[in-house]
Hints:
Elements: H1 2-22, H2 24-41, H3 44-49, H4 51-74, H5 100-117, H6 122-128, H7 130-139, E1 151-155, H8 161-168, E2 172-177, H9 180-192, E3 199-201, H10 214-218, E4 221-223, E5 237-241, H11 244-247, E6 254-260, H12 269-279, E7 280-290, H13 309-318, E8 321-332, E9 346-355
Amino acid sequence: xxxxxxxxxxxxxxxxIVNAFRCYRTYSLQRLTKTESYLLTLPPHHxxxxxxxxxxxxxxxxxxxxxxxxxxxIIEDVSTLFENVKHDAGQVKPTIQPTSSDMEKVQxxxxxxxxDWSKDGAQERSACYEPIINEIELQFPIDKRAAEDIQIxxxxxxxxxxxxxxxxxxxxxxxxxxxxFMLFASNFVLNRCQGLxxxxxxxxxxxxxxxxxxxxxxxxxxxxxxxxxxxxxNAQFSMAAxxxxxxxxxxxxxxxxxxxxxxxxxxNIVSFIETIHKILKSGxxxxxxxxxxxxxxxxxxxxxVEPTYQMVRExxxxxxxxxxxxxxxxxxTYSQNVRSMLKYEYxxxxxxxxxx
Length: 356
């Protein structure tokens, strides 16, 4: 009985996320229509002064339509995404309505495509991924041991670029992701995109504030900037769907776990650190870079603990890790609009730990 209920909940969750993607166009255009309607109530001389703004709204509308064409491609084959479960995306119940949070995640998925798979994301990737990749190459030099014999796990892999880059260097790498938003989009990019810059997305169409020019809102990003089908034929690369804590239960399995903007995605960060320690081989290495945003903090209906970084350090050591390298104040951003008048920057922490 319990399994049946869980299966039904899983189906409904799947359908709700598909619905969120399907509602993107309607949701986005509603916001524009509301503004356009208000514009028409203003005095005629105000409307005249705002004529360029009205044209700008039309341009945003066109960008939304373009984005929706990409979104339709993203969800086109999701019903066959999981080998062990068949979801019928065509039979989506209209009563399973996406939440406003779901709709925001659709928007952020478009930005994530830019972060991971466009030239416009190169600066962010350089700050976030390169320190991890450089450390892997330092810890596991391929002249000492065949790269394909090094088993590396990337939990919270998002759209898979970090895991892809690690596999591209010859290591055996698996990315793990729980979010259906990310899984749908990574499936599209990794399995259905070929060639360079074959698609365009308009990631900033919902940024109505803190903009200098109209072009900054309506500018396109082409993707992918690297052909996902260009991996060497013998490359060991895979993406695994599911909850990190549930999927990875086998002890002493991985040579390296690489986490980027991940460990604060837990209700209980200790459970993540404990699992990382368990699944690493003796002498295995954990490489981490990111902030402590704590995603579930203040989220309605969710429990969360939010220890400070100094407390996290003690937890890491208390669970059996030796911290070998540590750097705080690492400047990083996440899906940042570089042309916005408002920018967020993290002073992230980078550390390398070894399992006793």
